[in-house]
Amino acid sequence: MDIAIVLAAGLGRKVWPYGEFRQKCTIPVANKPIVRRVVENLIAAGCQRIVVVVGHHAQQVRGALADIPNTVFVTQHSLDGTASAVLTALEHLEDQPYLVVYGDTVTTAENLRNFVSAFRSDNVEAAALVQALGDEDASDWLCAGIGTADVENGSVLQLNSIEGHPRGGSHRLCGVYAFKSHATPYLLRNPGIVTRVPVGGMPPPESEIAQSLQLMVEDGRTVLAVETEDFFVDVDKPWHVLEANKRCVDYLAKQVTADHIEAGAKISDAAEINGHVVLGKNSVIGPRVVVNGTLIAGANNNITNGAILHGNIFVGDQCRISDYCDVGSSAIGNRCIIGHGAEMAGVLFDKVYLYHYCEMSGVFGCATDIGAATVCGTLRFDDKDTPIQVEGRYEVPPYGANATYMGDYCRTGVNAIIMPGRRIGSYSVVGPGVILYDDVPSKTMVMAKQELITKPWGPERYGW
Fold first, then answer.
1. For residue 26, what is the enclosing H or E element?
2. Is residue 31 very low, low, confident or very high in pLDDT (cuts 50, 70, 90)?
3. Cis omega (within 30 of 0) for bond into 387
4. Residue 298: what pLDDT?
5. What percent of the chain has pLDDT over 90?
6. pLDDT reading at 122 higher than 80
């Protein structure tokens, strides 16, 4: 498969607070923009030319991919669906098979390589990557009805139908497709709306690739269904950012089977290491540091003075992690500071500062400053998960329901308390002493109003 089309034009409204001022496809996963991870995986799977469809915050996508050879960009001016986005790239396709991959998906190169191999080996006109739903709610996804078909190489799984956000289902579509060139007319025939939905399903008026697959099925064409083998996360909602980072870091940690210490890096004899360490150039693990798990750290990091790290942890470049802080399973960006007594688990984008005594759990956007003694609640008194409203619909996330989701360029004052499951928009401030029960819109400051009572006082109050 020589050509792949990567779709990176959408608005990303559901992933708020991360899609408003940032192209969703450039959200970092293990310190790499999702769309760059997608393109690198496609190249590893054998794709020689990449066509990237851009639109919303287009320059962010170009900036993430500009140094990758044989990558071209086309602009989808009217963001009216994924089938339309593919048609935008037609002039670059020529008369050969091509992949289509959504630019907000996080998986492994092996998953894509297996998909391409299955498509090449069977005489079919199109293929779709699908994932078993497990405990996920089918109504959150575009779902696939799966059956079997006989082809030259034997019996294979095939797509029997698609349905948008049904009341039940076994598999969901992953946003990874393959087409022979003569299947392209089905993209042109797309009616601009998903027609197979439950009664009352109310699909939006947009051309979804899945509907083109349904047209192929109705015409008796065989559409191959290939099940995922490794992890796969479609970053659609804020908690998917947390899940994608966790699964990606765990996957990368599994690839580490021995320590790797680069030039200028060193580990103190007074550190306690219970696991494997990958340490970039000039990074230091100092005295009294405890590492329980796999640590993958970049260049010029200073991890010292009693820092406690447990679980699988991925650290970027130029970070300081020190002074008896406690870091659980995390993806930590570049130039971050986790200082004295701070506790952290989750995801830090670049340049997040946790200077002193705080308890943070969730996803924290770029250049965010957390005031001393800020606390993120993660347990409710009723031990339940927090419903989160996404585009007017309340959902209970299957992963990270009680985490905090903070956008880029935020800060908190001292002693702020953030209740479970709250989201804070970019460019916002949660002031000192605030107990935050509600989400905070972007570009908003929330301050506590304190009522003071002043009375006379002195030694006479004690009988003098």
1. none
2. very high
3. no
4. 97
5. 79
6. no
The number of C-alpha atoms within 13 Å of 90 and in the hemisphere containing its C-beta is 13
Three-state SS for 93-130 is: CCCCCEEEEECCEECCHHHHHHHHHHHHHCCCCEEEEE
Q: Tens of pLDDT along 408-451?
A: 999 999 999 999 999 999 999 999 999 999 999 999 999 999 99
421 closest CA partner among 461, 368, 371, 363: 363
Give the list of residues 6+ apart from residue 235 with CB closer than 8 angstroms, or none. 15, 24, 27, 29, 34, 104, 105, 106, 241, 244
User: What are the b/e assignments for 397-420, b being 16+ CB within 10 Å?
Assistant: bebbbbbbbbbbbbbbbebbbbbb
Tokens at 180, concatenated: 């022979």
∠ CA 6-11-15 to the nearest 5 degrees? 100
Helix (H, G, I), strand (E, B) or coil at 190: coil
Name the nearest CA neighbour of 302 among 344, 332, 274, 343. 332
Amino acid at 175: G
Residue 274 and residue 293: Cα distance in Å, rounded?
6
Q: Which of 232, 219, 245, 243 is nearest to 399 (CA)?
A: 243
DSSP tally for the chain: helices H, then strands E: 7, 40
Q: What is the pLDDT of residues 339-368, one digit of tens each?
A: 999 999 999 999 999 999 999 999 999 999
Nearest Cα to 241, choosing from 24, 21, 8? 24
Residue spans of beta strands (DSSP E) within 9-125: 28-29, 32-33, 49-54, 71-75, 98-102, 105-106
Q: Which long-range contacts (CB under 8 A, 24 or more apart) does 401-404 make?
A: 401/239, 402/377, 402/378, 403/239, 403/242, 403/346, 403/361, 403/362, 403/363, 403/376, 403/378, 404/360, 404/361, 404/362, 404/363, 404/364, 404/376
Which position has the higher pLDDT, 274 or 184? 274
What tokens appear for 112 in the block?
């894509």
What are the tokens at 442? 């972007």
Task: Using alpha carbons, select from 176, 33, 32, 366 the residue that is nearest to residue 24.
Answer: 33
Question: Strand, helix or coil at 264?
Answer: coil
* 294 contacts: CB under 8 Å, gap ≥ 6: 253, 256, 275, 276, 277, 278, 312, 313
Distance separating alpha carbons of residues 354 and 346, to the nearest angstrom? 13
